[in-house]
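Narrative of activities, Objective 1.

The group set out to show that a structural description can be obtained from nothing but a protein's sequence at a throughput compatible with the screening campaign. Below is one input-output pair from the validation batch, recorded exactly as produced.
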Amino acid sequence: MSQDTGIYIFCAIQTEKKQQFGAVTIEGVDHETFTIHYQDAAMVAAEVPMKIYHPKKDNLMMHQSTVSRVMEKSDTVLPISFGNVFHSEEDVKVLLENLYPQFEKLFPAIKGKIEVGLKVIGKSEWLESRVNENPEVEKMASNVKGKSEAAGYYERIQLGGMAQKLFASLQQEIKEDIFNPLDETAEASKANDPIGEKMLLNASFLVDREKEEAFDAVVNEAHDKWKDKVEFRYTGPWPAYNFVNIRLKVEEGA
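Output recorded for this entry:
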């Protein structure tokens, strides 16, 4: 390997066989993928120019699409975050050796499983109607209306607090009616922080591939019930990003 090149790693898989997953295009140049091994663990990698890779859209898509290709051929995929480049294959082997105790526990835990994501966003008309249904909010809004900013300062604070309380109750409603039934069908679940003022649910689920159709059916049932009130953004399959925490750090002295 040239001194000007390094080893970019995409993910880890459980295999003892040398494998390739096609070429990846990084900043306009194709690079073949290959595996680097330690016992029954392997990193999917490519030899690339030794530099810092910024998380631009094209680079992120390259990383993501490569991991998706690996998932088509392997049922045990551990995700690695974007942008990790090592000086040599030997460095990657040292990393594998240090991570192997984690991998021994993680491989059986995620074997045959995928991650899917579900975001539920309230439709503006429905959210407004729920606000208008609340007599306290309606009364406070009437009090604030027409007042100067200074005169209505404390009423606006109270109105904001009421709106937050109402929104929290909507999030709880979505949790009970959508998240909980999906949680019962999934192997594991995680409720992430909502993004944006209209998001009512931002969740990730770890799903057994053999139960994927059953899980999809529960999602579809919830969608049919709520489609007039909210938007569903259902994504995946992904490797278990939200359920695997791999520290890419070679121990000192290794």
